[in-house]
Amino acid sequence: MNIENIIFDLGGVLIDWNPRYLYRKIFSSTEEMEYFLTHIATSEWNAEQDAGRSLQEGTAWLVKRFPEYEQAIRAYYDRWEEMLAGEIKGTVDIFYQLKAQSTYRLFALTNWSAETFLVAKQRFGFLQDFDGILVSGEEKIRKPFVEIYERLIQRFQLNPSKSLFIDDVPENIEGARKAGLQTILFVSPDLLAQQLKQLGILQR
User: Model pTM greater than 0.70?
Assistant: First the structure.
């Protein structure tokens, strides 16, 4: 692989974000929590905020549909920071190993609300060390739509065939491939390190 640029997803790859960290405190049973996250505050609903809808608008829309869940719905963004368990240390270590090699430009492409990303930037210092970050909520378009990858390529003048994209969601990987990027489906920090070493990207 003749790679010049490495692009990381953030949530699930470098940052441990999961709404269950919050909703285990709110619901008395796992069944209630899973019902809420599967049928009420769904990933599809959250994706609309990631695509640029304001938190206020998204919350109001959902409360109107499910008024009986108003308190739990409002907690989603009022207590959003409680969904962050912290950085995924193994992947952050890989990021800094790559940065120390001074061989690659390092970018992030994330599906993230523009409003909550401000909180993440304050909390995670390593976000200041990328060569560039593209946030879906700021761009009003999200993965896996090919337009966001093309925007990343244009914004940072990347050669897609020499750029490696790492994400934990298969649909996002497929979108990146359609845009001509090289890809790795993230499973764990240990496996990622092994894959990068096999490709000659990460020094042993």
Answer: yes
